[in-house]
Amino acid sequence: EQTFRRLAYGDRLLKSDLPRFFTACDLHPTEGEIQQAFEKVFKGGNNTAEVIFLLDCSTSVTPMCFHDLTQFVKSVVESFTIGPDNIRVGVVPFSDDVYQTFGINRYNMTYQICAAIDNIGHKEGLTRTDLALKETKKLFMCSRPGVQKIAIIITDGKSTCPERTLQNARDVKKDNVNVITIGVGSHVDLEELKHIASSERNVFSVYDYSSLHKLRDVISRRTCVAACVLCQTILPRIRDHGLYLREVLELVWTLYMPIGCEISWYTEIDYDDKVKKSTDINTCLRLVIQAKIEREGFITLPSDVREGVEEVSDPDLALEKVHKWIEDKKRAGETFQGFS
Questions:
Q1: Was domain 48-223 assigned CATH 3.40.50.410?
Q2: 233: which DSSP letter?
Q3: Is 305 within 8 Å of 285 (Cβ atoms)?
Q4: Rounded-to-integer distance, Cα 76 and Cα 221, Å
């Protein structure tokens, strides 16, 4: 902190001064290592999700409408940062049954996902939304722990088996999946879409398939809110005016982690009074939490649902939840695993 204040211009340190800062701290990362840490803090961690599209391909969807549907999905995918450590995408086409599905761990490149979408055939039939939701629940089983899960359903009609659809939607949402529904045309059942979606805020409708493109930015933002804030606000400010103290410290801790305070996802440590005293882990956690909340508006924490997460925007509440999570692990007899 003293070195930061000595080298900073006011309350910020220019990104170009990071090598000089580390040298003054008697730390000697390469420029490549500094850049990797920067990308980890200001890119990968802020644009991470498991996303599955459920596509109604039933008889009511004409070939032209089907083309508009797949083009829309590809345009949304192209707006994502795709990668094994970023956003992963799966697709579940359905009519009488699900077919030509691929899961979130199948492809790691944008062009691969778009090519797979192009290869989906138009298979007319019923609207078995219930089967698509059942398949989606299975596909989310390989989700990364702590990563938000989003299901986007696009349909132009009422499901063939509405009771099963609503039950399977409840099952999916119990796994802490954020469900978004998009109704196309005048024959959709908006009440059904409201019950399928995680909230009414997640229900959208358009006049026809050619109008889907109007929702591209909305759906992209809903999936990548943190990334939008990062690209439109945070990165330009860092480029033009520099990094705040908390941000620089987060880079330091990403490169040189304090004993007992792993800032990346998991590491085995024994969280006891001796460790707390020697590392002041509370201060470390609070600064990291505050930095993430300031950058993203929230921090993603484990929820009570298995492999689920929740978004917390209050630093004190976030710290309290982290400690509760640690205590629950200890009571369960598990070795504490550091939390990012």
A1: yes
A2: I
A3: no
A4: 10
Is 326:339 a contact under the CB 8 Å cutoff? Answer: yes
Q: Is 86 helix (H, G, I), strand (E, B) or coil?
A: coil
Provide the residue ranges of all domains of the chain, joining segments of one domain with +: 2-44+228-331, 48-223
100 DSSP assignment: S
**Distance of alpha carbon 10 from alpha carbon 7, whole angstroms:** 9
| Among the listed residues 72, 212, 90, the one whose alpha carbon sits nearest the alpha carbon of residue 150 | 90
For residue 296 the two structure tokens come to: 């993203």
Instruction: Give CA torsion, residues 189, 190, 191, 195, to 10 deg.
Output: 110
At 214, which amino acid appears?
K
Q: State how far the Cα of 282 lies from the Cα of 295, in Å rounded to an integer.
A: 20
Whole-number pLDDT of residue 225: 53
Parts of the chain with a pLDDT under 70: 40, 42-47, 145-146, 224-233, 257-284, 292, 294-298, 302-310, 333-340
Q: Is pTM, for the whole model, over 0.85?
A: no
Burial of 186 (0-12, 13-18, 19+ CB in 10 A): exposed
List CB contacts of 264: < 8 A, sequence separation 6 or more.
40, 254, 257, 340
Q: How far apart are the first and last CA of the chain?
A: 21
